[in-house]
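User: I'm writing a short methods note and want a consistent example. For Galectin, I'll paste the sequence; you return only the structure tokens, no commentary, since I'll be parsing the reply automatically.
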Amino acid sequence: MALSSFQLYDAARGLHSRSWVPLLATFSLISAQCDLTAGPGQMSGEVTATSCVEYIAVDMTVGRCALLCHFQVECFVAYTNSDDGVFRCILCEGVEAIDFTAVHENFYLGGRVLLENHGSVPSHRLSLAGGLSVGQVMVVKFVMWSDRTFFLLIQTNGHYAMLVEFRLYSRAIVRNSKLGWWGHEERSKPHFNFVAGQEVEIVYIVRQNDYMIYIDKLPFFTFQHRVTDLESIQYFEFAGSGSGGNLKSFSITS
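Assistant:
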């Protein structure tokens, strides 16, 4: 029997477990809808997630698993699995890695859109209420208009927890932190083929010991936490020299 959206909500609440012990239930998710434009939304690739629960699902789709995820307070990512012939919705509390080359796989990231279709400005700062936590994902899209573009994660006391700077003139992507003074620069990268006017998408995954950064769906580098108190990181700042750039959107799982 199909569940109405209200029955689904009650069932999901009843099966909710803060300890994230795997639970199984049968759902027929055909009468409710989920807005996949909220937060980072649906992506393609194989996700490695943490603290997951499984639900046997009838007529399984990522969209319907996302709906079930919506009713779980801790659920940030939903994907499907049928390796053994049993269809399942996998609902997870955090993300560890994403393999974007597995284009046949789909997953859903639920969260908040903090900014969308912003105009060209020299700088812009967004508040990250509650700071960051392990397993969170940030998705940033921007267009570079000048020779330098900065991405800053900063603390409330003004320290830079992580800076990612695109330097088109020297074909470098510089990472660093400023905790009273500038630390050691990191520059390793698989390649550099970015040009002024190009739209770029960056995915940050907050992990236990570092940030994992993907640029245009390719794993580019990791950055060891130099500020270990992730909750103290209260802002994301976009800034550029000269004409700056166009920050198109910023989303974060929450």
